[in-house]
Amino acid sequence: MKFSRYASAIASAALLAATVASPIQGETGLAPPDEKREEENTRDPVLNKYFHEPGGDDQLGHYDVRYFHGIVSYEERTDTQRHMIRAYLKFFNENGLDTWIAHGTLLGWWWNGKRLPWDWDLDTQVSGATLDYLGQHFNQSIHHYVSEDGETKRDFLLDVNPWIWERERGDGMNVIDARWIDIRNGLFIDITGLSETHPDTNPAVWSCKNYHRYRTSDLYPMRESIFEGVPAKIPYAYDKILIEEYQEKALVLTEYEGHDWDPSKKEWIKTQAQIEKEAKEEEERAKKKAEEEAKKTE
């Protein structure tokens, strides 16, 4: 399919976003102390990993092991992520800190201003300067959230990786710079910082530790929009960023991960086959859990 056919669709998405000036902040000062420079050359990659998950697949790889009590249902994940991103964006807005949604979360915004219902986690980005500030002032802080109707109350942990000073990939064990974690079940938002890592040889190119690179003009000036009912910032060249990361088909494909796009409702609807598949998986998990409990009582 020619992407030009869908230019009008992209333009309509842009109507959600008003351009605002928000220049990238300068160098962060994220430099390691001498002892960390020495440790970098001798550390054990596995032992030095800061964030840990209960497993490495699509499901278990998206929980913080400290707060994991089992895989949650589709409905609980939906509820958790909606309130989690609202709480996150509210915190950043109230404290005047820059952040914007990224990766699959940005793709969800493109479709209907909401998360993709099959996404296991949410993704945001911050500037290196903001990342530094979070580490100095908000690390290990608990944030209390109350929904607008007063019916939902949650606590979230903002946890900053102590290896944020390392702006290259390193051993690959600490590519996630921070997380916003629901301490009830361990689901989280991944927060990655963007830094101008080689200003002399590659100026105006900002990258994270997972090899995502953006030019200043791709990011700024940021656009103001709405995500899950809360004010959110969107990269200026969001269409370019999404196509480079997911290809054009991600902006037009209407069947994905057991969901169909309903244009009349502007929602992704779970297919009957997916409903039956999840019911079977839930039945198998319950059976396995019952067997494990039975073994404990023998």
Automatic annotation (TrEMBL):
Recorded superkingdom: Eukaryota
Record flagged with keyword Kinase: no
Signal peptide, first to last residue: 1-26
Region spans: Disordered: 272-298
Topology versus the membrane: Single-pass membrane protein
Segments forming domain LicD/FKTN/FKRP nucleotidyltransferase: 93-198
Localization per record: Membrane
Gene Ontology annotations of biological process type: glycoprotein metabolic process
InterPro entries per the UniProt record, alphabetical: FKTN/MNN4/W02B3.4-1, LicD/FKTN/FKRP_NTP_transf
Pfam family, one: LicD
Keywords: Membrane, Signal, Transferase, Transmembrane, Transmembrane helix
GO MF assignments: transferase activity
Keyword Membrane found: yes
Entry's Gene Ontology cellular component terms: membrane
PANTHER family to which the protein is assigned, alphabetical: FUKUTIN-RELATED, RIBITOL-5-PHOSPHATE TRANSFERASE FKTN
Name of the molecule in the record: Mannosylphosphate transferase
Organism of derivation: Clohesyomyces aquaticus
Source organism phylogeny: Eukaryota, Fungi, Dikarya, Ascomycota, Pezizomycotina
